[in-house]
Amino acid sequence: MKRIILLAVALVLALSFAVPASAASANARGVTWRKEERTQGKKASFVHLEYLKVKNSAITKDFKAIVDDFDEKYSPLLETDTTKKPDKNSRLDVNASFTVLGGGSWAGFLFTAQSQFQEKVTAVDFKTRNYNLDTGKAITLSDVFKDEKAFEMLSQAAYEQLSAYYGDEAANEEKLKELTSAENIKNANFILGAVELTLCFDAKELYDGKMGIMFVHTYYPQFKGMLTDEAEKQTDLSGHKLVAITYDDGPSSVLRTSTVAENLRKYGARATFFQIGIYMEKHPAMVALLHNTNQSLQIHGYEHLHASKMTEEELRESIDKFQDLVVSITGERARLIRAPYGDYGDYKRFGIGYPLIQWKIDTNDWNDKKTNQSVQYVATQLSETGDIVLLHDSGKKAFKIANGMYAELLRQKAYCLTVEELLILSGTEIEPDMAYYEVRDAFK
User: Is the separation of the CB atoms in 392 and 253 below 8 Å?
Assistant: First the structure.
């Protein structure tokens, strides 16, 4: 009898172990997000999968096939974790990022597979999709642009930005010219964003031994008069609140920063992460994941120090050290700075040469005792388009406000943009050594 009971208990445990754990889903502008997670073997490795569902069943089926194919391809290759903490040490993340454009029908999707073992990225793969959610039609770049000059501009932007990846390392020039020709650029992988149209390339196509996604950033306002009538309609954000969400002091633990990033993806949002170099060194795989899911990574310093306590040489050395680190992980240099503590005076006095990003709204999310108030504060204070909002992905409880905050912003018909998206859309000239708190007046 005891043997039967033990066998039954073992069977129940085995079944509960094998069934993926699904989190509550979220629906953002007609896209439903959900996740599944499972542990493989005897806590040998961990798999995180994100699925998207839309009203068109054929599109949903396409999305599921992408995620399942990545799972089938990469999960068997995960190394065995002997620490029994596979979610931290040996894992596959298949993440789904999306943006539904202001017109409500067009949407861009990025599916990213990244595997890691003990903070070392072991594989990166991606697929892009762009659909009209109403008709089920795939959107091409020819649906976006009506003028051949736009493809020449895309070609030039791709050549310049891709050749700047990985610092002093040279790209394969012949392949670079081939990939970025005006004719080939028409068939490049891309994702439609709220303000940004992003071209996507595999790093290993141009740089030997490199792994990751290379993004080419272009913005709809740069193509004035070149968009098709439908593209003009779909990229129109009038009637929506527009804010730039920023996170300081990370990356933090897998739980904190990854939860923040997960909530961004869940609600079709983007953010700017002002990161600290010494924490990037501890969590390079998380830095890579943020980059490969098309979040914006910018400078908060190699260490979290007051500029007023540093010499000009020390300040410049800190920035250079940060840039070397972020390039070694992602290939892409940072373009913006947020001074620790908002203490930007010396950055300006020394002529550091980067735009200085401050904030209009401080959520006080760093105060663990005010987690619930932070959500309400954002809901009541975020009354105007053009705000830059300060949050942190480092506090013990601060990351918990992300889900409630993005749900509330979505209810307010707000779009969460990167800082560069907000500034460019506002028509603001982004200048070095200038401080930016908000751009409310530009939208009035």
Answer: no
Question: What CA dihedral angle connects 182, 187, 193 and 195, to 10 degrees?
Answer: 20
The residue among 176, 429, 388 whose CA lies nearest residue 296 is: 388
Segment 398-414, tens digit of pLDDT: 667 777 788 888 888 89
- Amino acid making up residue 114: Q
Question: In sequence order, which ranges of 180-252 are alpha helices (DSSP H)?
Answer: 182-185, 229-234
**Tens-digit pLDDT profile for residues 288-313:** 999 999 999 999 999 999 999 999 99
Q: How far is it, in rounded angstroms, from Cα 275 to Cα 350?
A: 21
Fold of the domain built from segment(s) 241-443: TIM Barrel (3.20.20)
Residues ≥6 apart with Cβ < 8 Å to 125: 70, 73, 74, 112, 113
Distances (CA, A) of 38 to 66, 85, 179: 18, 13, 38
End-to-end CA distance of the chain: 77
Q: Give the span between the Cα atoms of 255 and 112, in whole angstroms.
A: 19
What CATH number has the domain spanning 26-132? 3.30.565.40
